[in-house]
Design goal:
The chain is α+β, with helices and mostly antiparallel strands. About 55% of the residues lie in helices and about 5% in strands. It has a 4-stranded mixed β-sheet with strand order 2-1-3-4, with helices on one face. Helix 1 runs parallel beside helix 3 and helix 4 runs parallel beside helix 6. Bound molecules: glutathione. Glutathione binds next to loops.
Amino acid sequence: MKLKLIYFDQPFWRAEIARLSLYMSDIEFEDYRITSEDLSYLKENGALSDGSAIPFRQLPVLVIEGQSIAQTGAIARICGKISDMYPKDIIEAGKVDQVIDTVTDINVLINPSMHESDSVIKKQMRHDLSNDALPKYFGYLEEILKANDSGWFVGNEMTVADIAVWSMLGWIAQGVLDDIPRDLPRPFERLTSLYNEISKMPKVQDWKRLTYAYDEPSTGEYNYHVPDTI
Ligand SMILES: N[C@@H](CCC(=O)N[C@@H](CS)C(=O)NCC(=O)O)C(=O)O
């Protein structure tokens, strides 16, 4: 099966959910990281210059057997099915989906503060996120982990839901989001332990060595120096 994952050259959760699940299961795929020229081209044309369609002019996009699929959740389900990290049972599948959609909600909550140019307003937004919205969502996720009690969000094995949360927590734990403390997830024991256990896995360590080994310092509020522990 021919697979091409198109995203920015960043280890952001929207792409890592696909890249890491495929890598961990030894599924070959083209890890295409766009240039700034690609970005201008795709915005204008709804496709890369090689013809890969970018339906909503946003990334990630997965090209599978020449067909483009957009939207993080849709891509996560496909990659999870290919890599055997997505349950066949419809209820278990729904439980994976609800976690992925919650990571999207968290991302969407943080987004406006990333685009706020007034530093005072931005600081207030970050204060509210750190003291209210983010701990609230971390608490909900912690409850799901407690109720399942296997260490994973769903069932007894790692799924793409665990990768989504791991990667989102890594983003926060880098400390690149000004005024969101990097140790914000630490009081949530199960979340912290999920993060630390996934980081330790040999395939995850290999993936980080292969693809997170950037010499460059961070660019803005994304970063490449994802910590191994929270
Ligand atoms: N609903 C989309 C949102 C994707 C999204 O916001 N992608 C961002 C990068 S993380 C993007 O393409 N930004 C460039 C733009 O919107 O112009 C999804 O779930 O994948």
